[in-house]
């Protein structure tokens, strides 16, 4: 069991470094590895993906908070966009956790893997949307938030991989798009974590230390090390070939996604 605790610490550190180095959220790393660790701990098969997604979503909260505060200090947040995106994001993220609770572990794993493989291919090809239109009005932004939040909850991401391309496509300058995405990442993480807690509440077969579909020991071991090592990753970003590392990370993410599918189909 001690090795499992150390694995949670190492996972938190890895997520923090990758977030600081590449500006990438940890869901693509956390969910597959948490799934494998939960198998080692004897978590029932039908709860593997739900517990991994819920725990990963909760672990994003401290990192999202730190990222938001950093971008706010640099004046990189378009708060008028945040105001209109957030209602849709809160609703979409929260409702999607109810959909996730109804889906079987294998279905969730397949959806997660397909999404992560698509994101990896986008990173490998370095595809970026061209700014071809203006921002929609309040209703349009809320609708976009609904979709961003819903997908984010099903794959346990902070929404950056969806929000930044959307805002860039809508002629928001990249630094502002990244800062604004960081701001909406916090409501995504909060609504997602709350939804997974409520949907898993009282579910039989979960570990004793689980709060709904959030496994507290993993959360408490990952979160501080993630926050501690994120600045280290940020410093390394100025010394290492980030473009090459992104390609390596994309391949690794594809491998982890496929490993998750293998795990849930053979556990």
UniProtKB/TrEMBL annotation:
<keyword id="KW-1133">Transmembrane helix</keyword>
<keyword id="KW-0472">Membrane</keyword>
<dbReference type="InterPro" id="IPR002781">
    <property type="entry name" value="TM_pro_TauE-like"/>
</dbReference>
<feature type="transmembrane region" description="Helical">
    <location>
        <begin position="6"/>
        <end position="39"/>
    </location>
</feature>
<feature type="transmembrane region" description="Helical">
    <location>
        <begin position="177"/>
        <end position="198"/>
    </location>
</feature>
<feature type="transmembrane region" description="Helical">
    <location>
        <begin position="244"/>
        <end position="265"/>
    </location>
</feature>
<dbReference type="GO" id="GO:0005886">
    <property type="term" value="C:plasma membrane"/>
</dbReference>
<feature type="transmembrane region" description="Helical">
    <location>
        <begin position="51"/>
        <end position="69"/>
    </location>
</feature>
<feature type="transmembrane region" description="Helical">
    <location>
        <begin position="81"/>
        <end position="103"/>
    </location>
</feature>
<keyword id="KW-0812">Transmembrane</keyword>
<feature type="transmembrane region" description="Helical">
    <location>
        <begin position="145"/>
        <end position="170"/>
    </location>
</feature>
<protein>
    <recommendedName>
        <fullName>Probable membrane transporter protein</fullName>
    </recommendedName>
</protein>
<feature type="transmembrane region" description="Helical">
    <location>
        <begin position="210"/>
        <end position="232"/>
    </location>
</feature>
<keyword id="KW-1003">Cell membrane</keyword>
<dbReference type="Pfam" id="PF01925">
    <property type="entry name" value="TauE"/>
</dbReference>
<comment type="similarity">
    <text>Belongs to the 4-toluene sulfonate uptake permease (TSUP) (TC 2.A.102) family.</text>
</comment>
<feature type="transmembrane region" description="Helical">
    <location>
        <begin position="108"/>
        <end position="125"/>
    </location>
</feature>
């Amino acid at each position: 069991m001690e090795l499992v605790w150390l694995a949670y610490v190492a996972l938190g550190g890895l997520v923090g470094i990758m977030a600081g180095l590449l500006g990438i959220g940890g869901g693509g790393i956390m969910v597959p590895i948490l799934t494998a660790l939960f198998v080692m701990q004897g978590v029932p098969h039908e709860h593997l993906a739900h517990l991994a997604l819920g725990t990963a979503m909760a672990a994003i909260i401290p990192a999202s908070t730190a990222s938001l505060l950093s971008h706010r200090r640099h004046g990189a947040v378009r708060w008028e966009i945040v105001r209109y995106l957030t209602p849709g994001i809160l609703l979409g993220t929260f409702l999607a956790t109810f959909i996730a609770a109804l889906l079987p572990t294998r279905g969730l794993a397949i959806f997660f893997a397909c999404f992560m493989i698509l994101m990896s291919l986008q990173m490998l090809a370095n595809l970026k949307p061209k700014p071809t239109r203006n921002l929609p009005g309040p209703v349009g932004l809320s609708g976009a938030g609904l979709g961003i939040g819903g997908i984010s909850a099903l794959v346990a991401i902070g929404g950056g991989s969806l929000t930044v391309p959307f805002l860039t496509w809508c002629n928001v300058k990249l630094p502002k798009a990244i800062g604004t995405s960081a701001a909406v990442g916090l409501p995504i993480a909060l609504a997602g974590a709350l939804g997974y807690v409520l949907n898993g509440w009282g579910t039989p077969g979960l570990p004793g230390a689980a709060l709904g579909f959030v496994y507290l020991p993993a959360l408490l071991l990952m979160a501080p090390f993630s926050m501690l090592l994120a600045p280290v990753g940020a410093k390394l970003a100025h010394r290492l070939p980030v473009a090459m590392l992104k390609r390596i990370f994309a391949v690794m993410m594809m491998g982890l996604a496929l490993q998750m599918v293998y795990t849930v189909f053979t556990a």
